[in-house]
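Workshop exercise sheet. Pairs work together: one partner reads the sequence aloud, the other fills in the structure field after running the prediction. Swap roles for the next sheet.
Pair: D.N. / O.F.
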Amino acid sequence: MSLALNPLLREWSGRVVWLVGASSGIGRALAAALDRAGARVIVSARQQALLDDFLREHARAQAIALDVLDAPALQQAAQAVLREHGRIDLCVYCAGYYQPMRAQEFSRHEALRHLEINYVGALNLLDALLPQLLLQARQNSPAHLSLVSSVAGYRGLPKALGYGPSKAALTHLAEALYLDLSPEQIGVSVIQPGFVATPMTAGNDFHMPALLTPEQAAQSILAGWARGEFEIHFPKRFTRWLKLLRHLSYGLYFRAIKRATR
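Structure field:
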């Protein structure tokens, strides 16, 4: 009996894939891997220069510059993709923002910026995308929606006062979407990376265990889609430990985290 929670994504030739937040890090590496696999890749991000750089290396790809906080721009981008390709087979929300924050240096502005980019931007994308995904499902051309969250959203962690709650909200959103959309045969997955060497993590002043390259992260994501997973977490040697910690009582959990981060 198959344990897959989603339709298996294994063949990419000709599939229309839109990645929102793909100018660097995991998003860019994933876009490059999908382009090599034969997908028709559209990349979006705020910085046109970085998108142009991607297009120079991937001539078949397309780019649409936008800010995920600009809801009308996302609506216009979705319509542009549909005018060009007629459908969207996979959309990946990989826009993200991270700045370390502790309560001793709390910034309301920074906390809200995490929430806006990591969560509200995904809501803006859903507003632009869900009617089309539901229409495709009724026409027997179902799609897949994937949200890039983080293991930082599993439970509270030091220096994650802004980042962790926003990613926890994104994971919760993915779970609720799966329950609503899986009966429509629309795939939904949530991607939970551990530490990946990206511009976002470059400023960390602590040891990052089991650090991966963006290219390794991209391969883990492709493997998760191929297995039909809902939660794609990696690297397993690190994320399984964090998943185990989720089951501890608060007393045991707080002691374990304090000991590990001393």
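Discussion prompt: Strands lie at 16-20, 40-45, 62-65, 90-93, 144-148, 187-193, 231-234. What would you look at next?
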